[in-house]
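Consider the following assembly input.
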Amino acid sequence: MSKLSEIKRAWWKEAVVYQIYPRSFQDSNGDGIGDIRGIIQRLDYIESLGIDVVWLNPIYCSPNDDNGYDISDYRNIMQEFGTMSDFDELLSGMHQRGIKVVMDLVVNHSSDEHKWFKQSRSSRDNPYRDYYHWWPAEKGEPPYRWSYFAKSGTAWKYEEQTNAYYLHYFSEKQPDLNWENPQLRAEIYDMMHFWFKKGIDGFRMDVITFISKHEGYPEFPEEIQGAKMIDWYAKGPRLHEFLHEMNREVLQHYDVMTVAEGPGTKTDNVLQLVDENRQELNMSYHFDHQSIGVGERFIINEDYQNLVKFKTILSEWDEALSKHGWNTIYLGNHDFPRMVTRWANDSPQWRTTASKMLTTFLLSMRGTPYYFMGDEIGMSNIKFDHIGDYQDLMTINWYNLTKEEGGNIKEFIDSHKLCARDNARTPFQWDKSKHAGFSQSAPWIKVNPNYVEVNVANQQDDPLSELNYFRQMIKLRKQYLTLIYGRYELLLPDHEKIYAYLRELDEEQLLVILNFSDETSSFQSDKINGLKQAEVLINNYKNYICDINEVVALQPYQSIILRLR
Ligand code: NOJ
């Protein structure tokens, strides 16, 4: 039994984070690209959700090779998105509404168009040379490193100018910054102070687990090849030293939240990042559940919706962070498919019910929920048939590599209908007018044709809509601290269709039952007493059936939270 009096409460533990991908939220000037003034126009909507924190994907100057994750100036705003005064207005508009703002911190790499890199690549003795990782060609070819987005597959790019290779774990236009250099670290800390002094409330730290590279770039063991290298990238010898330093130099001076994007982080090492006694970061989010049934280049297999694996992974993560640190919960973001497609069912018959079920899950787990814009109205994958419709360099590069290798293109296109990142990046669906109310002109990426039905205007005043269910679920989470801090206990771990768990705090006991399938499924557990008398806190159907033996029959994608005591 958990006791509230023994728990260290914090605003970021009690917050619901809503993620805005600015490029796709609202266009205000008719260029087909979302922008800051567009977000300002929608502040009342954002406030109406009841969320506490907005995480903004990068809005800094960028040539947009990777939609803003290639930054050419950390202290200015991307022209397409607006100006610094627009940003200041946005920040104060959020704060007036009691909403905190978390920005993306992208410091594993910069853009190759950043002035640091322009200097660095110009000569071997330039003062900025050591801001990046270089391998002199006279030493021969550098040891192989895998790259997420490289056109050729390797993370080293040769430059004639200085006869050397530079390292880029992501695209060629995203050279990795050299954290070994104290001057570079000081510049980054200074830039972080700049944003905190403006009043932002935290950072989501892009692939922060990759910042420390292994000295001398040794060959990795034979079994650590391809995408497996990610786990090694996350084990750089100086990672924790750097994060301690960042904490000491910057973070501890403000009341802010930090969350690591933690690829390569596992349950056995996450505490090194987020244990509160270690003064590094507050939270981290992992990729373990997202990898279920997804292989290299996002080719999926039959495990794609394996609920038993999903429950096992999420329960292990809860356990790992149950005593120290704090967990995060998310089902999708701008790097993953739409949650209703990925984890449930996006058919017109079930989309609404299934979205509500997933919302129940996200907002009833222990850990800070990160909720991706558009999921609250049940937006689903666009599922492009043609490679020409994709904008994401990752999909395009992988497609080209697959083609060059004579690989299976049909399998690639089919898998990417389910997994490609662009599925989550299509314009937000506000109403049924042309371009879904997102823009006056054709958007940078196609709108999902289902916008005619799936949109905010349709749902705003409908008490049974996904949107209003989301608002209701947020209220419930705030009303019952048990949903935030309560101990989590998984029930029926081997059930293939039902995910059920208890949440307990002091004398209160809540039971969450979720049917992850399109069939009626029954729930029974001898760990539960008094089901018949339980109070229903929320239900995405009108009723639920519980027989005299306390067996609950759940309708397809039904979700219920019961208060047992
Ligand atoms: C993770 C970001 O979420 C993703 O969108 C980006 O492509 C990579 N990091 C590289 O910055």
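The first helix runs from residue 11 to 14. Ask yourself how this observation constrains the way the partners meet.
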